[in-house]
Amino acid sequence: MIELSKIQSPEKPLGLNRPDYRLVWEASRGQRSTRFDEKRRFRYAAAIKKRLSTLMADRSEDDDPDWFNLRLKKLAQRLAIIDGCDSAEFVMEIMTLPCQWDEWTRAEAIEALLFSGARMKAERVLEILNPTIDYTLSHLHYDQQARYLLQRCLCLLSFLEPPAAGIVRIREVVAATPFLHYELREIVTALGHSRSNDALEFLLELARAGGNRFEAIKNEWIEAMADLDIPESKRVLMSFIDPDTQQLGVEQYFEHYNRERLASHIVESLARNRRSENAYICCAIENFPSRSACYSPKSLLA
After folding, report:
1. I need a surface site. Which of 37, 39, 44, 270 has the fewest CB within 10 A?
2. Three-state DSSP state, 99
3. How many domains does the chain contain in total?
């Protein structure tokens, strides 16, 4: 049903199909273009919900109701893909049912709801994802798939309401888990797209700690600061070139390729906010020279 309801596209994605967290905000505002034929999507979603309601009724009358749970969850995960925004509460209700071997289904359902534009209430999402997180933590030392699933869950926690609840859980897990340094990259990227002050504080903690861990995520950290797009994150970027900007305890040396990336984001931020302080822009380019002519002051302030 999912494939039949999709609008077919001749373009095939290249490389790894990583989540694009910029789409979360487009979906929450209803601005994301749908992948589905709406008439088919509506019809198939109604059929899935009807079948789920029948199974839930059968479950309530059965002597062993938990026998139905995995079956219900697999079907609800498909509903999350095809009708996540309108069926979020129904899907989450089913995902909280007790079940074995449902770790991936829980994460996939929450991810589908997130990218559909559904509101992600922290209490309910944590109720669903915490069993998966606990499972992965007990399998990290010998199961690479568990490590990947844990990263995926932590990325999703970046977008909860309120944000602080998700960030607290991320911080707890990162502090207690022997992550390989590069395994934090995707999590840092998701934090950057959360647009949360709580995420900013955690990102600053990672930078202040320094060491090999921060060396491995510098590129993603710079991008995250730009993607946060909040006044505080802009001040962090400016603090690298402006002596009058409050210093935030982040004193890192960046290689030339990261200095170029940092400079471009500083200049883009100034131009996007319609500020015309040529001195700041010239300072950014002088201290972090870019190979690209598109970052010239004239082109940006035009």
Report:
1. 39
2. coil
3. 1
